[in-house]
Design a protein that fits this description.
Strand content: 5-15%
Number of strands: 3
Structural class: mainly alpha
Number of domains: 1
Number of helices: 8
CATH architecture: Orthogonal Bundle
CATH topology: Hypothetical protein af1432
Bound molecules: fe (ii) ion
CATH superfamily: Hypothetical protein af1432
CATH class: Mainly Alpha
Length: about 200
């Protein structure tokens, strides 16, 4: 899709600026401006919500996803991770949890949901989709992966552990940036206060 070259400006209801920003049209479609692929749309969020088995505002719900999204974007600025993968990871990795405990198979179920929804609700190039699937499948299994985008996904999630009483431990984080004490403190404060990033408001509209 290439309809992000300014011609749609008059139809925009919300505009985000900066690298990897989204633009939401009045029709509710969010486009990622730096790749042009249809990524996170209202229909996608709604479809995920309709099948989500737990409390939408629970500890593994939408506000957690929003913080993972924001954590991932902050990390990606330094790690160079593929932003589209990080964003999609945030909304799929816990999307098929059946409980708020260990639920060991929730990663593969989230990956499966991404497979089901790809082409129907979102688009992602093959190489990035492969990374998304690995990240979802392995985020509670592997401590680290060789790929920097997958590492960034893992860290984005782990930086939001304070909310469940586990302070992020640099030994279990992958990227040097995530191990930075200032980053951990920033993430902890948001996690402990159940901070709701602006993207959550957009997703919920
Ligand atoms: Fe998570």
């Amino acid at each position: 899709m290439s309809n992000l070259n300014g011609k749609m400006t008059n139809n925009l209801s919300h505009v985000g600026y900066g690298k990897g920003c989204e633009i939401i049209t009045k029709k509710g479609t969010i486009f990622q401006s730096n790749t042009g692929y249809k990524l996170i749309t209202k229909k996608l969020i709604q479809a995920i919500k309709e099948q989500y088995a737990l409390n939408w505002y629970g500890i593994h719900g939408i506000r957690h996803w929003g913080r993972v999204y924001a954590n991932g974007l902050r990390l990606a600025e330094g790690t160079g991770a593929k932003v589209s993968v990080v964003k999609m990871f945030s909304i799929f990795h816990d999307s098929r949890r059946l409980n708020d405990g260990s639920d060991e198979a929730h990663g593969p179920r989230g990956a499966k949901l991404a497979e089901e929804f790809r082409g129907k609700y979102f688009e992602l190039p093959d190489d990035e989709f492969e990374l998304l699937i690995i990240a979802c499948n392995q985020h509670t299994v592997l401590q680290i992966h060789t790929d920097i985008t997958i590492q960034t996904c893992f860290d984005a999630d782990r930086l939001d552990l304070a909310r469940v009483g586990t302070m992020p431990d640099p030994r279990y984080l992958c990227t040097d940036l995530a191990k930075n004490s200032d980053i951990i403190a920033w993430a902890n404060e948001r996690s402990l206060s159940d901070y709701s990033p602006a993207i959550v408001t957009l997703w919920n509209q």
